[in-house]
Amino acid sequence: MSDNQFTHFDAEGKAIMVEVGDKAPTRRVAVARGEVRMNEATLTRILDRGFEKGDVLAVARIAGIMAAKKTPELIPLCHPLLLTSVAIEFLPHPGEGRLEIEATVKVAGQTGVEMEALTAVAATALCVYDMCKAVDKAMVIGEIRLMEKHGGKSGSFIRND
C-alpha cells in the first residue's frame, strides 16, 4: 500500500479496522497541541486558582489523561492500546488570553498514538471550557494539531510551523 492510500477502507471502499497483528511492537510517541482563547481575566483567574469548581488545570489534566485512555471508545476503528504514559502540559500566554495545551502520549505497541494525543488535547480544552463557561462563554477552542510522532513504519513526523 502506498503512503497516499487510506488504510481504513478495503478494496471495495468498506470501513475496516487496520490489521496490525503481524507488526512488531515498537516504542511510539505522539505530541499534540491545541489552545483555548479567552478573556485575559479568565486566564488570570485560572492561573490564580480562583474558580469555585476547583483547580481548573488539575481537573482538565485528569480529563485529558482519561480521554486518551478512552480514545477507542470515541473514535471508530481506533485500536485499544495499553498506553505507557500520558502527560498534559499547559503553556499559558498572559497578555494574549491564550492557554496552550500539549499532550504527549507513549506506547510500546503495534500502532501509533496520534489519535490518543489529539483526543487528550480536545478533552482537556473542553474541560477548561466547561469549568470556566460561567464567567466566559465566548472562549474559543482551536488549533488542535499533531506536532510530532515517532516510531512505527512511517518513522518520524515533526511539524515545521
From TrEMBL:
<dbReference type="GO" id="GO:0061799">
    <property type="term" value="F:cyclic pyranopterin monophosphate synthase activity"/>
</dbReference>
<feature type="binding site">
    <location>
        <begin position="77"/>
        <end position="79"/>
    </location>
    <ligand>
        <name>substrate</name>
    </ligand>
</feature>
<keyword id="KW-0501">Molybdenum cofactor biosynthesis</keyword>
<dbReference type="GO" id="GO:0006777">
    <property type="term" value="P:Mo-molybdopterin cofactor biosynthetic process"/>
</dbReference>
<dbReference type="InterPro" id="IPR047594">
    <property type="entry name" value="MoaC_bact/euk"/>
</dbReference>
<comment type="subunit">
    <text>Homohexamer; trimer of dimers.</text>
</comment>
<keyword id="KW-0456">Lyase</keyword>
<comment type="function">
    <text>Catalyzes the conversion of (8S)-3',8-cyclo-7,8-dihydroguanosine 5'-triphosphate to cyclic pyranopterin monophosphate (cPMP).</text>
</comment>
<comment type="pathway">
    <text>Cofactor biosynthesis; molybdopterin biosynthesis.</text>
</comment>
<dbReference type="Pfam" id="PF01967">
    <property type="entry name" value="MoaC"/>
</dbReference>
<feature type="binding site">
    <location>
        <begin position="115"/>
        <end position="116"/>
    </location>
    <ligand>
        <name>substrate</name>
    </ligand>
</feature>
<comment type="similarity">
    <text>Belongs to the MoaC family.</text>
</comment>
<dbReference type="InterPro" id="IPR002820">
    <property type="entry name" value="Mopterin_CF_biosynth-C_dom"/>
</dbReference>
<dbReference type="InterPro" id="IPR050105">
    <property type="entry name" value="MoCo_biosynth_MoaA/MoaC"/>
</dbReference>
<protein>
    <recommendedName>
        <fullName>Cyclic pyranopterin monophosphate synthase</fullName>
        <ecNumber>4.6.1.17</ecNumber>
    </recommendedName>
</protein>
<feature type="domain" description="Molybdopterin cofactor biosynthesis C (MoaC)">
    <location>
        <begin position="17"/>
        <end position="152"/>
    </location>
</feature>
<feature type="active site">
    <location>
        <position position="130"/>
    </location>
</feature>
<dbReference type="InterPro" id="IPR036522">
    <property type="entry name" value="MoaC_sf"/>
</dbReference>
<dbReference type="InterPro" id="IPR023045">
    <property type="entry name" value="MoaC"/>
</dbReference>
